[in-house]
Amino acid sequence: MITILRLGHRLGRDDRISTHCGLVAxxxxxxxxxxxxxxxxxxxxxxxxxxxxxxxxxxxxxEAKWKKILDSHKKKGFCIVHATMYGLPLQKRIxxxxxxxxxxxxxxxxxxxxxxxxxxxxxxxxxxxPHSEVxxxxxxxxxxxxxxxxxxxxxxxxxxxxxxKGKKVIER
Amino acid sequence: MITILRLGHRLGRDDRISTHCGLVAxxxxxxxxxxxxxxxxxxxxxxxxxxxxxxxxxxxxxEAKWKKILDSHKKKGFCIVHATMYGLPLQKRIxxxxxxxxxxxxxxxxxxxxxxxxxxxxxxxxxxxPHSEVxxxxxxxxxxxxxxxxxxxxxxxxxxxxxxKGKKVIER
Lengths: 172, 172
Fold this sequence. Notes:
homodimer; 172 residues; alpha/beta; Alpha/beta knot; six-stranded parallel beta sheet; two-stranded antiparallel sheet
């Protein structure tokens, strides 16, 4: 069970990056995403619509107080993993992390509260270079599930039939 | 050698997603990114600055005519791989693609020209679900390099020393 916590969402500016985080989380097998920062009703509604149309049981929600999320997940036995370029290499910790069956995966916003680093179980880095929370999330999921998440199937109203060239879409 | 071609950049709207594509490409071991669509001087300048500061030889450029890029890379013996959710599963083609030493990896914008599908060597899908070109790029690089790209080192003016908690940055 993997839940993503996306910190520090900013209205307007983070619209698309936060949406991509949600879509990636869903497509690669997370169970839920919780947004913190600004409340963005239209982004969350958009994601819910997409999720419903394409299938699966992915949950999308909002909570202003990120510490509350950390606390409640700790109480439920979740291992808290924070993606940060300052952390230890993912490839050195993933075996350990894979043993945990309940993960809360935390991805920043532009400014991450300093105290977060000491409140989590792991600060892990998907490279120590600046890049993207979307990519860090994707590679974490891919490593955690050992690539098997790419074979996930969703039963949606809309489905794609893979093609060598062109597009084939089935709607029902 | 991997070059990324980012299609259909739109000023303003694609700012951050396109920036993330460039940063991910660099961090995960691509040699270059070429942007097409709107010309966005400030985005490109921003990326060049980041790249210079953090090290490495990553190249960033712009070309209005995407077909020209395809043609010139074909002539130089590049294999053209297009990431699309309509394509064949990455996991079924990656072994074949890994044998190619020169790759042009094409990622869309919002609207990809239909003719592109027949002009490339591979249309590959990182899942057939909607998500993010940033994530598709990341997982492609990760699969192509079999995870070894996470160990890449850059000699920059700024370097991070991985920490279990907190941040350690060395500037020179």
